[in-house]
Amino acid sequence: MTTRIRHLLPTCRIALVLAALAVTTAGAHGVGHDDAPEQSSELASDAQELVAAAHVAQRAHRFDEAADLLTKATELEPDNDAAWLMTASLHLLKGRTGEAQAACRRIGRLPLLAVLTCRARVRIGRGEYRQALSELETALAVAPVDRAEPTWRAWATSVAGDAARTIDAQLAAHYYRSSLEVTHNEQVQAALVDVLLDLDDLNEANEALGTSQQSLALRVRRLIVDRRLGRDTGDAVETLDSEFRRNVGAGDYTHGREMARFYLDVLPDAAIAARLAGRNFSVQRELEDRVLCERSGGCDPDTQEVRDDTP
Questions:
Q1: CA-CA distance, 213 to 186, in Å (whole number)?
Q2: What would the pLDDT profile of 23-62 be if each residue is shown by its tens digit?
Q3: What does the pLDDT average to over 104-117?
Q4: Are 16 and 8 in contact (CB under 8 A)?
Q5: 181 with 192: CB under 8 angstroms?
Q6: pLDDT average, residue stretch 189-210
Q7: Whole-prediction pTM value?
Q8: For 3-185, which CATH class?
């Protein structure tokens, strides 16, 4: 069945559920991933509008508001798969894997590949990377390419990349590239750049970034790559530093993940990076947030909780 969710593909990492949702309703990574398949017009318009509004709230990090809107959408339309997919994504962002799994089980009309990808993200949230990767590889191998929505395959391969990152960085890069060949998503692009940086493949990372970076996540990664390549980044670094310090002064931590990454890898400031990463992790708990918090020293690697003594 065709889904009319083309503006809802995930922003998921949530990174990636919002990419399938961005494809699903025209924009949602899960993301970040801002693209998903189209959901059929049988959906009640009121419920559809609530889902679209939830996507906007989620993108602005108004997570409680997004959750309330999705609850209303599922009350109006109990079989609204877009709402359940976004609900699973929000639960994962908060580290609530049990609730996310329950939401995945409510999805009934999307392609099987989409359902299995939702479940794989739950496994990733639980640290079950090998199981998630194995199940996704099987699902991708058997899903009929001529019948499955290409955007769902793009989402599934991007999530396979997430699962592979702690197992085989080269394999992760392969999956991210495969996803980007189907549909462009800046969250997936950012993930590919991160893997290439981990591999110390600066030329490939530079190529993956291209010449135009619209999102803040890609702008920060452009600076990381340029600095490691020995390029002059003075003005750009000063501009972002000023912008981020204004944000912090105004109590605006919407882009906490990018700000922490900036002060960790672009303009090193251990105290600021740890504080920002810890604050970000208290709000969203995806894999990237956890790794960033641990790298900065803002989280205890054993308990995976924000340190009380973060400067």
A1: 9
A2: 444 333 333 333 333 343 334 458 888 998 998 888 888 9
A3: 92
A4: no
A5: no
A6: 96
A7: 0.84
A8: mainly alpha
What pLDDT band is residue 253 in, cutting at 50, 70 and 90?
A: very high
Q: In the structure encoding, which two tokens stand for residue 121, read together?
A: 């993200």
DSSP, res 264: H
Provide the token pair at 24: 């699903």
Distance (Å, whole) CA 179 – CA 296: 30
Which residue is listed with tokens 């960085």?
Answer: 169
CA-closest candidate to residue 3, choices 29, 32, 28: 28
Beta strands per DSSP E along the chain: 3-4, 38-39
182 vs 177: CA distance, rounded Å = 9
C-alpha pair distances (Å), 290 with each of 51, 277, 305: 28, 9, 9
Please provide residue 55's backbone torsions phi and psi, each rounded to the nearest 5 degrees: -65, -45
Among 13-22, 41-50, 245-254, which range has the highest average pLDDT?
Answer: 245-254
Please say whether the beta carbons of 238 and 276 come within 8 A: no
- Domain boundaries, given as residue ranges, for the chain: 3-185, 222-296
- The long-range contacts involving 295-301, CB below 8 angstroms and separated by at least 24 positions, are 295/264, 296/260, 296/264, 296/270, 297/270, 297/273, 298/260, 298/273, 298/274
For residue 242, give the H/E element and its range: helix 234-249
Give pLDDT, residue 264. Answer: 97
- If you average pLDDT over residues 262-271, what whole number do you get? 96
State the Cα–Cα distance between residues 131 and 115, nearest whole angstrom. 16
Cα distances (angstroms) measured from residue 247 to each of 42, 50, 251: 42, 29, 6
Number of other residues whose CB lies within 10 A of the CB of residue 68:
14
Helix (H) or strand (E) holding 263: helix 256-265
Residues 6+ apart with CB under 8 A from 104: 84, 85, 88, 115, 118, 119, 122
Distance CA 247, CA 135 (A): 41
